[in-house]
Records
---
Amino acid sequence: MTKCSIKDFSKGDQVYHLSNTKLKMVAVEIITEENEISCRWVDDKGQTQCVEFMPEELGKSDDLRPRIRTITAL
């Protein structure tokens, strides 16, 4: 897993915090001047949460999907 920079994220990306891969969030704002990404998610109680993170703290959810290997017979 590589470290992400602010340029790797776009508004609407599904992301996760590196310390908790099960919690999926959505990037709702990219704050380039402050090097922060504002993320929103719904917690276990149904409450909407919104917190800013540094890009180094986040990963893209696509990175967690299993890679499918294709083997061809010769």
---
Amino acid sequence: MAEQKKQKKDQFVALCADSLDDAERLMPMVQQLAASLRKGIILFTVSPDADNWVETLGVPFAALKSDWPSVVEALPTAFNVVLAVTLADFDAPRGCSSHPRQVLKNFRQSKIAYLVYPLQTLVRPANPPVNVALTLDHQRESKEKLLWASYFIRFCRSKAMVFHHPYTDLAFRHRLDNNVRYMEKIFSSLNITREAGQYDLQTLPEGNQFANPDLKAIVQPGIDLFIALVPDQRDRDIVDLFSIPPALRLLKHAPTIPILFLNQRDDLYIMCD
């Protein structure tokens, strides 16, 4: 795992947009997140007409003559970005940088967390997420997913809703219990406790225990933001090539919920706070 060693004042939240309208829609939420996390803001765009509008937002910007995958790759190393925020518009033309499929394609190799905001969600006031949800299951869990949940708890005063299947298989249940203990260990080290109401463990309704719990968890009531792990592309098989990617399926399944995606990779950057 790679960690950024820069001081807080040298770390940034990236606002990623290719039009003034998209940037203005995202700006209130980016400002709120950056203030809570105590980070700066940088606007990134690869729009050909960026010179006509980037200065109107009043924040530092990088208008690059490049493509989004190359920009995304450079965010943590060249710009000290710890979180990218971008827009998802299901009505955008295919190939547009805000189309959900293109968003996931652009951030496929991202080494930092990227927060995807549905367009219709941004008509709401820019408030910090009250309830941040994630899942635990019988598989190996992501430390980074738990750490990002802790950031929202500590800096945004959010509560974490941790969902899991009601496993009846003893082996699966044992592995889940191990993951729960791992979560409790991490949260306890950060002075985050269930007793203080900072997180809660909730059982999902009965269903297919072999299915991805994210799809059932994200539609539970009261969720303001969901944290999801994007499977390693190297683990895909021939069946996966002809099916909807899990991350895109999640976006389509809950088109009004902002989702913080973390790519499953060994060199994922995290905040050191």
